[in-house]
Amino acid sequence: MSGHVGDLSPKQQQALQQFREVCKDLLNNDDDDYYCLRWLRARNFDIQQAKEMMKKSIAWRKANNVDDFAKDDYKPPEFVHRTLIGGMYGVDRQGGPVWIYPFGNFQIKPFLRGCTIKEILTYMAWRCEQGMKKMREQSKKLGKVVETQVVIFDFDNFSMLQALTAEAVSAVSAFIRMYEANYPERLHQAFVINVPSLFSVLFNLIKPLLTGNTLTKVHVLGKGDNWKEEILKYVDADQLPKQWGGNCVDEITGDPFCSTHITVARPITEADYRRRSSVLLNGDQGGSAAATVSVDRRSCHEVPVTVTLAGSRLCWEYETEDHDIGFAVVRAQDDPAAEDVTVLSWQREDSHLKPREGSILCEEPGTYVLKFDNSFSAYRSKKLTYTVRVVPPTISEREDEA
Known about the structure:
Blueprint: H1 10-22, H2 33-42, H3 47-63, H4 78-83, E1 87-91, E2 97-102, H5 108-113, H6 117-142, E3 149-154, H7 166-182, E4 187-193, H8 199-206, H9 212-215, E5 218-221, H10 227-232, E6 291-295, E7 300-307, E8 312-320, E9 325-331, E10 341-349, E11 356-362, E12 366-373, E13 382-391, H11 395-401
Parallel strand pairs: 2-3, 3-4, 4-5
Antiparallel strand pairs: 1-2, 6-13, 7-12, 8-11, 8-13, 9-10, 9-12
Helix pairs in contact: 1-2, 1-3, 2-3, 6-7
Protein name: Retinal binding protein
Domain CRAL-TRIO: 76-252
Pfam families: CRAL_TRIO, CRAL_TRIO_N
């Protein structure tokens, strides 16, 4: 049996019931059998493994404010939004969205110079959430559950050597881990087309990160492999740009890539890189005035912030002048002898290349400490400029918690 709704063996049906029972504290009211079965299929109906996978994903969504994407609270970094290829166009024959990533002429090194892997992952998570949103819309429109999508990766006119650098492989691997861990069983089919001979090297590096179920849905096709015919088995021509075997052209530009919807590669110039400026550091967001300090070598600058209301959001932005710095957020305990609670794990940030900003939801009142860590630097002090603000919960949010 496939393990989908309506096609369950007695053993799978029992596993579903047990999964619902052991996960009752994690599941929301609208988490239906389709939702539960995606986690179970991803772990071959091992109930405990599926529960652990879902639990980690819920924590990931919370830590990265992923649910805020649905509220249009996320504003993509301008550089990433303008230059990262790809987009959603049309639907497949099951009603799911179709994503197309045209790698032709895409320059990885200049792109990675203008952003961080974390920014890329956040933006790709936002795209994933856009896909989920489209599935919900299609489910309502078609009167059936739509839960998968088609993805096309086109490597025509792409230099594969640049994808084999350590940084590029790291970025690709990080995305695959994120997708597999948090969007299980969402892939209908993936087409990797116009692949050059070196693609096998990259594929062998990332293949261990893909589940067996995912690998069965991946079609790797060269230039002479009739890939258009293969794609058209799953996507009708009136839902597909002309460049990839369909009948559609862009309604504004008339181009066969439908580039109003799908970002295509273009040369990245110095003018494209993010300017070292920010609204918060200019003091236009109602936060505290920007402070500038020198963080000595082998030292850590701590900024304690008092949060009086549960549900408040602690926001920050910072930049360094010439070199990177470590950053973390902890919550101090009432007992001075107790260890601080890590709220945001330590990470080394290239804040000298562009300002860093972020926020956390403070579930408990107390003293939160922003840690700007230069302890790893044996020789250099760092000039740091930062601003912090606390946004209290809205009245309605307070009433919801009461």
